Amino acid sequence: MPRLTITHTTEFRYRGPVAHGPHRLMLRPRETHDLKLLAFDLEISPQAQVEWSQDVAGNAVATATFATSSDVLRISACATIELSAPAWPVFPISAHAAQYPFRYSDEDWTDLGALASPQYVDEANRLAAWVEGFVMQRPTDTLSLLKDLSNGVTAQIAYQLRDEEGTQGPLETLDRGRGTCRDLAVLFAEAVRVLGFGARLVSGYLYDPDKDLVGSSGGGSTHAWTEVYVPGGGWIAFDPTNAAMGSVNLIPVAVARNIGQVAPITGSFAGEARDFVSMGVSVSVERL
Questions:
Q1: Which residue in 112, 150, 243, 258 is a FRET match for 180, CA 20 to 30 A apart?
Q2: Rounded to whole angstroms, how far apart are CA atoms 207 and 223?
Q3: What is the arithmetic mean of pLDDT over 205-213?
Q4: What whole-number distance in Å separates Cα of residue 288 and Cα of residue 277?
């Protein structure tokens, strides 16, 4: 079980001192049966008052409020975790869900709600037509179908680093044939929702000790992937950026219906657009 230290630092620079509005921070790793949080420390400059809460998905959210102006805002989070996810996971899928299509229980269907409904307009059903190419027959093995679809995203969509904010819609990603890890995760989530699965987007970090995974820079990187709910197996991680299933290299921070709901840092400042100079982000994921 590797123990890791994750350091995530974001620095905003301005032309002169500006007043900062409240900032919403999602930086604390999300504890699961595969991840144990051993320590977490949050440092903010200038000094801020920090209030912690949980959102509707159970994510840890810190809200920072500032009393002084400054020309530099620096937010640094350091976490120590222990990972225990197996490299070759075996999921105890319920018998009734082992073959697709299957029906969620009434309780599961109610609780999944919007997580099982497509989120993007597709009047011509283009995505549905694309997804059908991965359904070889009905019935078919559920996990095999999900793996084939994840691998299909990997094979057909080239990974491309993009520094600009925002995420492409699934049809835009299909048309362009390239995208970031966020774009690939959104495409896969929307694809499985078209098939009737419940899915949620995950933001976090990628642990890449062998430096052979896509979407990682240096010792680690912020990353995005998808979790699909399968009865018996629970929320199963799929990383279409790396054609991977399971969470052996994944460190979740936040989960949500929409990728825009899991941004690590959101906030504002009082001033004009030209007052903003730069934003720098550094992430390291290292084994102790």
A1: 112
A2: 10
A3: 86
A4: 35
- Residue 218 confidence (pLDDT): 45
* In contact, 122 and 128? CB cutoff 8 Å: yes
* Residues pairing with 9 in the sheet: 76, 282
Question: Hey, what domains does the chain have and what are their CATH numbers?
Answer: 3-84+263-287 (2.60.40.2250), 95-262 (3.10.620.30)
Q: Over 90: is that where the pLDDT of 10 sits?
A: yes
Cis peptide before 118 (omega within 30 of 0): no
